[in-house]
Write a structure and sequence with these properties.
Blueprint (H helix, E strand, L loop, with lengths): L27 H12 L2 H13 L6 E7 L2 E6 L2 E5 L3 H7 L5 E5 L2 E4 L3 E8 L2 E6 L4 E3 L2 H16 L1
């Protein structure tokens, strides 16, 4: 197995840097590479802030959703109830990976398995652990552009 590096200029990033890791599967080698890369980015800062405030490791979060009066974080290790507003939770998450798909849900693109258009301007997103969610039409265009940018690379 080899590792290849390449540079793609994208003026749409407006001074930011986006790193995408492509592999046949998400194995231990990929996990180590992502860990090293995240140590040198702002994601680690937001992850630490999230961990300190809510006692949940943000890298394991699949989906954050408003669930009645509370917010629930669905993670690879189970569900956690957060007694805070979704907008305040969103402020602590890394915007490079966490995308709002509706007024009540935020997904982590690291755990996105598949997405497809189901009609009426709605996108179905399939996440790890069998979680299926749908975007609202209000956020569909923004999400579509985000997903297209990630797929092109």
């Amino acid at each position: 197995m080899s590792v290849k590096f390449r540079f793609v200029q994208d003026d749409a990033l407006a001074g930011n840097i986006e790193i995408i890791v492509r592999a046949a599967e998400k194995d231990e080698r990929v996990e180590r590479l992502l860990a090293v890369l995240s140590e040198n980015s702002g994601q680690m800062i937001s992850g630490r802030q999230f961990l300190e405030k809510y006692d949940i490791n943000s890298s394991g979060i699949i989906l954050v959703m408003r669930d009645g009066r509370y917010v629930t974080a669905k993670t690879v290790r189970g569900d956690y109830i957060i007694k805070d507003a979704l907008t305040r939770v969103e402020e602590c998450l890394d915007p490079a990976w966490f995308v709002r798909i509706s007024q009540s849900e935020i997904i982590n693109l690291k755990h996105l398995k598949n997405w497809e258009f189901v009609g009426g301007g709605v996108i179905q997103v399939k996440m790890e652990n069998g979680i299926v969610s749908y975007t609202s039409r209000r956020y569909a265009k923004q999400i579509h552009e985000t997903l297209k940018r990630r797929v092109r690379r």
